Amino acid sequence: MRPEPTAAASVVVTFAWRFALCLGLVLAATLRWGQALAEALLPLIAAEINLLDNTYRIVSLEVVQRGGEELIRIVVTLARCVVLPDSAHCADPRAQAQATTLLGHLTLPPALAVAAVLAWPPASWREALLRLPLLLVGLLLLLALDVPMVLWASLWQLHVEAFAPGLFSPLLLWLDFVQSGGRMALGLVCAAAVLALARALAGRGQVRRGVGG
User: Fold this and answer.
1) Membrane-spanning residues where (predicted)?
2) For the chain, counts of helices (H) and of strands (E)
3) Is 196 among the domain residues?
């Protein structure tokens, strides 16, 4: 006789097909509205880069098409000299530099997080409701850690490669991590954190109600 599947295996199978279905729906939505979403987020991306590093003056930040691909492109000039360990490097203020990243890098990690959160069955209606605000906060943090950091790091990489090729830079390490598959891991970590925190908060609320009763 074939052994009956365990409860854990049943949960995994249920999550897998629900995740595939949810991911398909979310990706379809990003294909339809991804560019509009990106354009709406561009001011926030610009504000984060300006907050992190006032070395650059942003000339333009926009969604462009190149070779059939949709890209987020930033064009900057130097607002002040770039300070490296050896010396300060000043360029013609009219000179421009640019960096790009795929539009999909903005939409795919959040899509993974949203699909995973929607696919995992909640233990209660309270847990389901708690997931919504937690997911919003998680997505904002996820977005802040990816595209703005990648664009900033790509600009910084131009200076490092030109003037200090051996310089150790945590920012460039983060760039390597994100571009080598780390952004997908970030999306799944975001989902796991939202699910765990929602479960913990829902359980705490049940305990309080039980004590009060």
Assistant:
1) 102-120, 132-155, 184-202
2) 6, 5
3) yes
